[in-house]
Q: What sequence folds into this?
């Protein structure tokens, strides 16, 4: 074997070992292309499915956006109409506001005038109240005087009535005595010189003056007026009659209220109108009160 | 040891199997490498030649 053959054998062996090592190293470190391809395929499928889903979502979103757009357009139109109507109402409200402002201004002036008038009325009212107070004081004093006078008058009336009864009884006794005397004289053929005495009639009773009535009563005995009671206010002791100034009724006249053939009460006229009059009930029969339909007359 | 008789006067050298052993090692290394590549290709791709 020649030296060259030996050298070639050694070189071939060395290079073959070197190349085999390189090949083994490359194969051991090479990437697994199948797994990579599988992974890429899975990624592609996932991406495709995602694309389909995204496409579907896009279509859905488009439809939803379209419907929302239609709805928003309708709402926009409605809001536009509403804005127009509100603008009209705003114009009307502005006009009303202007009118109200003018009214407020005029009312403010009116209120100022009214306030001034109210102050004036208040001062007048206070003055009148003071006057009323003084008049009430005077009235109270007058009432006291009147009560005292009435009391005295009633006492005197009682005395007069007792005296009248006594006079009547004495007159009756006198009449009986004269009658007996006449009988005796007729028995003896003589005639009595004096005419028989008549019994004294009851004089008109004196009425006590009612408190608050200061004017003297008008003469009613000479006038014969008849009417009816139309309304009665027993709480205030007031009554209304169906005749008035046209029939001759005057203030402070006294009317008698009659029911059937019984006297019910007396009434003093306070206010007279042409066709009716109102009076206060100053005396009434015990247990009887005037009522509508009773007859009123100036003379019994 | 050679069957053929050596002529007289020629340089005599001892026969040696050293280079045969070196060649056997080289062949073994190449075969082992081929086997490893084959196994690796089959395990990765399921086939030895061609594309899966």
A:
């Amino acid at each position: 074997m020649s030296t060259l053959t030996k050298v070639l054998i050694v070189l071939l062996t060395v290079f073959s070992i070197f190349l085999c090592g390189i090949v083994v190293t490359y194969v051991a470190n090479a990437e697994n292309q199948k797994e990579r391809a599988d992974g890429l395929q899975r990624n592609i499928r996932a991406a495709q499915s995602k694309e389909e889903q995204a496409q579907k979502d896009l279509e859905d979103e488009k439809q939803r956006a379209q419907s929302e757009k239609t709805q928003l357009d309708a709402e926009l139109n409605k809001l536009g109409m509403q804005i127009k109507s509100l603008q009209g109402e705003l114009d009307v409200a502005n006009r009303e506001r202007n009118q109200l402002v003018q009214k407020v201004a005029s009312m403010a002036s009116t209120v100022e005038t009214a306030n001034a008038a109210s102050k004036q009325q208040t001062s007048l009212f206070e003055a009148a109240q003071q006057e009323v107070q003084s008049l009430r004081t005077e009235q109270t004093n007058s009432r006291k005087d009147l009560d005292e006078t009435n009391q005295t008058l009633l006492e005197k009336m009682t005395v007069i009535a007792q005296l009248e009864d006594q006079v009547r009884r004495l007159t009756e006794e006198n009449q009986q005595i004269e009658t007996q005397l006449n009988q005796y004289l007729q028995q003896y053929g003589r005639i009595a010189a004096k005419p028989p005495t008549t019994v004294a009639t009851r004089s008109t009773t004196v009425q006590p003056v009612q408190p608050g009535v200061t004017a003297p009563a008008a003469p009613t005995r000479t006038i014969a007026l008849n009417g009816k009671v139309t309304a009665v206010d027993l709480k205030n002791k007031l009554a209304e009659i169906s005749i008035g100034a046209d029939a001759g009724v005057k203030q402070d006249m006294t009317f008698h209220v009659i029911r059937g053939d019984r006297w019910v009460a007396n009434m003093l006229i306070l206010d007279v109108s042409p066709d009716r009059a109102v009076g206060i009930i100053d005396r009434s029969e015990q247990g009887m009160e005037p009522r509508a339909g009773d007859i009123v007359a100036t003379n019994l | 040891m050679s069957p053929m008789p050596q002529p007289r006067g020629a340089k005599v050298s001892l026969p040696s199997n050293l280079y045969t052993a070196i060649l056997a090692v080289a062949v073994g290394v190449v075969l082992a490498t081929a086997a490893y590549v084959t196994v690796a290709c089959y395990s990765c791709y399921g086939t030895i030649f061609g594309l899966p």
About this structure: Helices of chain A lie at 3-29, 33-187. The CA atoms of residues 226 and 297 of chain A lie 4 Å apart. Residues 212-221 of chain A have pLDDT under 50 and may be disordered.
